[in-house]
């Protein structure tokens, strides 16, 4: 509360690391960016609330980096508005936007030592030497770079370079952190550690973070909300659980999860009040609400989404349907993947579609070529085959 | 074991023989046109040239070396040469970097300026010198006209301006080459480094000073050494523009050598001067070589780490 008494106290060197920045929101409003003829980002509207850690998730080439560069000011939008806080920053130079970015390529200065690299944003902003030294020391400690400060980037491993790039960003307290796959080159163990440290850092600083990744585990574990992009367009923007449990369309459904959700082509068949989805080799009953929604849409063909976890393998083609299942599907085992003590089993339906099943621990080992019956325990999702949109129950 | 060893050594001998055979043409050419003249020049330094063409040369041992190397003439020649290098090299490099930076902007029509800026590469020293000789002519030259000083002494006839004028011509002629070198180096500076610096809050001048310039430094060093060595060998422009004059104000070492040998028939004297010039260039070149062997490694590693 000293800050209220003296306007300079908030900038006092000692309080710098403890100080929670007044968080700033970031927004893209109807932003498009095309290079020549190809659109890298299409009509993208998303907002990261003040202090939020928003993850941009999507396959390679979907425009994640471009979105970050638009916020940083390294690209100017072909149309639309970029906002940092309440300010429209379309015409603001990158150096005046007060953001810090971790580049996918690290972009470390090869001729400067690690210490000088980390110090660079402080020097260019005329931070006094004593404070620079202290800040660099603090960051180097927290990212375990202290023993590497005198090295040149060329003398570091990929993971070490990535940590230097991260250190160069977090040495300052900008309005927004832009992080482009900052953990992609770390080994699995370090990645898990750094994930936790970044989440902790975010909790401590309260700075808004736009975090780009193509790793859905990273997205689901770190993001307060996740924006799923495909082909330059926003597919869904929601909390991780919702992205997983209520995918907005078939793309999100088929992108999230490991293995991701199975999307099967099927037909709606009505029998009295009940509505079924018929797929090659079987059919399953829809719940009342989903059935009503499907009827409202006047659908005939549908895309049926079933997570591998929502399927169970019943051995033997003649297995009797058990109560509590939504339905059964006949299939043949084609591939068994062992993941730790779990099995991911790929089965082929009569219509040659492939279905992944998550078979839990302890089950009998599957053999390829074996005919099986898949029990659907639900929940299931329906998507409109015309535009892939979710049929919301 | 013995057999194997013998076979090995016989093979080694054969390989060496083939190697020398293949080297032979190069060695012969080198010997005739480089080594022999070199040794012959050093040898000539032991003789004073005769007062008249058909009299025998006079063996004087090392005394001519001693007198020429200790002479104030050599010192003055060298000082003028160093001045010439100091005028031409830094200015040339700064201009080259400046033009390359301008031409590195992503603007329509930049190719036109790139072509213009690099065009002096296609100009010979003689042509460049003739152009400026005409421009600087005290009677009809455009420059003289602009300066409003027609008639009387021209720039090339002025003791204080002659060497700077020759330097300007040299800078002009070298600018294309320097421009090409600096353009290549600028284009190899990775974009993402400059972008990172922008996001890190660096102004354009700060980016240039702290990112671009250090990454250009190997090329700057290269251009500097090439420029210095070239400066010590600059002959054509002096011969055409001033012939060493007025007085001795543009008498650089290489032009003095030419004058001693071919105008005064003072071969022995010129030979000693040549040996001195050779020694200087040898040192400069070896410094350059040694530096680059380290530098090449340096220049490679940032690329691995950036890409
Ligand atoms: N400078 C450029 N010129 C032309 N096309 C570009 C340029 N930058 C990006 N693109 C195109 O824009 C699209 C989006 O690129 P972007 O780099 O944003 O993808 P990304 O989601 O970051 O992919 P990745 O996960 O592989 O890094 C791609 O199709 C890419 O080819
Ligand atoms: Mg990218």
Summarize the structure in words.
The complex is a heterodimer of chains A (393) and B (307). Chain A is built from ten helices and 20 strands. Chain A has 393 residues and is α+β, with helices and mostly antiparallel strands. Chain A folds into two domains: 230 residues, P-loop containing nucleotide triphosphate hydrolases (Rossmann fold, 3-Layer(aba) Sandwich), CATH 3.40.50; 123 residues, OB fold (Dihydrolipoamide Acetyltransferase, E2P). In chain A, strands 11, 12, 13, 14, 15, 16, 17, 18, 19 and 20 form a ten-stranded antiparallel β-sheet that branches. The two termini of chain A are 50 Å apart. Chain B is mostly helical and 307 residues long. Chain B has two domains: 35 residues; 226 residues, MetI-like fold (Orthogonal Bundle). In chain B, 74% of the residues lie in helices and 1% in strands. In chain B, helix 7 packs across helix 9. Chain B is flat. Chains A and B meet through strand 6 of A and helix 8, helix 9 and helix 12 of B. Bound molecules: adenosine-5'-triphosphate and magnesium ion.
Q: What's the short version?
A:
The complex is a heterodimer of chains A (393) and B (307). Helices cover 24% and strands 33% of the residues of chain A.
Helical percent range of chain A?
A: 10-25%
Helix content of chain B: over 70%
Interface with most residues: A-B, 30 and 24 residues
Bound molecules: adenosine-5'-triphosphate, magnesium ion
**How many alpha or pi helices of chain A?**
10
The SS-based structural class of chain B is mainly alpha
Largest sheet composition of chain B: 2 strands, antiparallel
SSE sequence of chain A, one letter per element = HEEEHEEEHHHEHEHEEHHEEEHEEEEEEE
What is this structure's SSE topology?
The complex is a heterodimer of chains A (393) and B (307).
Chain A: H1 2-5, E1 26-35, E2 38-48, E3 53-57, H2 64-72, E4 79-84, E5 87-88, E6 99-102, H3 114-123, H4 129-142, H5 158-170, E7 176-180, H6 188-205, E8 208-213, H7 216-222, E9 225-230, E10 233-238, H8 240-245, H9 250-255, E11 262-271, E12 274-279, E13 282-285, H10 288-296, E14 301-306, E15 311-315, E16 327-339, E17 342-349, E18 354-359, E19 371-376, E20 380-383
Parallel strand pairs in A: 3-8, 3-9, 6-7, 7-8
Antiparallel strand pairs in A: 1-2, 1-4, 4-5, 9-10, 11-12, 11-14, 12-13, 13-16, 14-20, 15-19, 16-17, 16-19, 17-18
Chain B: H1 2-44, E1 47-48, E2 58-59, H2 63-69, H3 72-103, H4 110-118, H5 125-135, H6 142-146, H7 162-187, H8 191-199, H9 204-232, H10 236-241, H11 253-263, H12 267-306
Bound molecules: adenosine-5'-triphosphate (ATP) and magnesium ion (MG).
